Amino acid sequence: MTPAPIAVALDAPDLETAARWAGLVTPHVSTVKVGLELYLRYGPDVIASVRGASGVKVFLDLKLHDIPNTVSGAAKAVARLRPAILTVHAAGGPAMIRAAVEAAPHTQIAAVTVLTSLAEEDLGRIGLAGPAPDAVRRLAALSVSAGATALVCSPHEVGAVRAEVGDDITLITPGVRPAGAASQDQARVATPEQALADGADLLVIGRPITGSPDPGATAAAIAASLRRTSHA
């Protein structure tokens, strides 16, 4: 059975928990995501720990955002760990995005457009011309023109971004919450079924899976739900 297009966010308090979660969900999902907290605490070792023997894809979500030379060096440093996906901030500009793409040729560079934790009123405060769908579309087009082959956007913008960039770009959507799950600190959310229907390729789901009593069973249930929807 093909694993579901889900990246489980392993926002664990320690390496052992992250590795355990990864082992439980790996039969059901295509990807596990390692974020800043885990990577800064344990370094490169975390990649091998969560990859295990399964060879599951690892999504390294570091959201690099610095001058092009620094991002180039950072991307080169993590490329040897063979992550399937590495994130950079689209707001870093085209030269920075291009630097990451060139430094890690065997890793898919995903440009983060507008964080899903930001609401409309936040955009003006940080000097980003909104509304959010317009800002996301602008950053998406800029990123693709600079060589990014994946984009991170909220489920609310995924349809518009797909129309903007075409079918060849991988769209990754955080802020995905199964029906009935709390939105927590995400401002722009949708269900997994809706996000896929709107054009997402990879769904980022964290706490609804890892915070459940049985992460493996929860991942399996969401994967089964997506399969039913895709065959409906």
Task: Describe this structure as you would to a colleague.
With 232 residues, the chain is an alpha/beta fold. 44% of the residues lie in helices and 18% in strands. It is built from eleven helices and eight strands. It has helices at 15-25, 36-42, 45-51, 68-79, 94-103, 120-125, 132-145, 158-165, 192-197, 207-210, 215-231; strands at residues 4-9, 29-35, 57-64, 85-89, 108-112, 150-152, 170-173, 202-205. α8 links the parallel β6 (150-152) and β7 (170-173). α1 runs parallel beside α3 (45-51), α1 (15-25) runs parallel beside α11 and α7 (132-145) packs parallel to α8 (158-165). The radius of gyration is 17 Å and the shape is globular. 45% of the residues are buried.
By secondary-structure content and strand pairing, the structural class works out as alpha/beta
Strand content: 15-25%
Number of helices: 11
Mind summarizing the main beta sheet? 8 strands, parallel, barrel
Rough outline: globular
Helix content: 40-55%
The H/E string reads EHEHHEHEHEHHEHEHEHH
Strand order within the widest sheet?
A: 1-2-3-4-5-6-7-8
Count of strand segments = 8
**What is the mean predicted local confidence, pLDDT?**
91
Quote the distance from N terminus to C terminus: 17 Å
Report Rg. Answer: 17 Å
Low-confidence stretches: 183-188
